[in-house]
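User: I'm new to structure prediction. If I give you an amino acid sequence, what do you actually give back? Let's try with this one:
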Amino acid sequence: MSYNPTSAIARFLYGIFQSHRNLGMPKEGAKAKMYDETYDEIFKMIKNDTIIPDHSLVISAQHMRRLLNERGYVLSQLLKEAVSSNDELQMNTIRQAMKEIQVTMQSLDEFISVYKGVS
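Assistant: Good question. You get back a string of structure tokens that encode the predicted 3D arrangement of the chain. For your 119 residues, that looks like this:
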């Protein structure tokens, strides 16, 4: 088994989550705060990057696309459940969310494929 130092970040993030929980935050708030603060720190790193600023931007777009793709997959599973239970309201809500994800993914695909930047 190989060691990947980057995998330690998950344990660190869990520690941040637990820290917020220990301060009395509900799970949803602690999880949201963990992500928000983490993304803020990553944003600062990328914003100040002078070595690969354009590549960092594309990597960030690729990451967002992966997140959207995963959420789209989960929504497709939820849609199957809504169809099987004949829940029309839930089906419409899920379909709308899936359309919004699809539009955003198409925009990200275009950006990722054409953006060259200056560096």
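You can read the tokens as a compact description of the fold. Here is one thing that stands out. Helices lie at 8-22, 27-47, 53-84, 88-114.
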